[in-house]
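INPUT
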Amino acid sequence: DIQMIQSPSSVSASVGDRVTVTCRATQDILRWLAWYQQRPGKAPKLLISATSTLQPGVPSRFSGGDSGTNFTLTISSLQPEDFATYFCQQTYTVPPTFGQGTKVEI
Amino acid sequence: EGQLVESGGGLAQPGRSLRLSCSGSGFNFDKYAVSWVRQTPGRGLEWIAFIKSYTHGKTTAYAPSVKGRFTISRDDSKGVAQLQMNSLKTDDTAVYYCTADYSNYNNYFDPWGQGTLVTVSS
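OUTPUT
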């Protein structure tokens, strides 16, 4: 199975900060990568597919990028509702696998 | 907006069975592949099974951790998918989410249900 190594596991930030989360795949997944946001007690929500495609309704302060097998989720200006846990997921092969998550805390 | 609702979670003893259901509404449920994903604090998010739509042959796949014990099925006439879980182990304790993929091949999951807790304990 492809492992997704996500970092950091948590980050402390303030409203207005720029935050970047990184995910590394243990093998080439081309650009078959998604990002999800999960708020406490809620289900994950799809934010970005295919590395950089923002889902409808997702604010433009969220963006996704890549460099080889390294992928990034960037929040350009953190808002109060963005404090949550973020997961990456590779969809290149079955089983699709997730990173361990990054908790964005105040 | 599409919605998924899970039911059937609860407490089961090791070696026993449970059946989870996932009901879809507000979207063309029959066109989507349905997956089950579970979550624990220790293992995070783990995909465990999918079933593709009728037009994609209702193909199924399972994670090695549940293959041979769990069975996924769907009844599109009722807008429901089910996960039959047999020979339960304590490691199966998790919140189980039902989710869907419109493409039937890329496994980008949207929407998700609210989750149902399964506890396996004697």
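end of record. The two ends of chain B are 40 Å apart (CA to CA).
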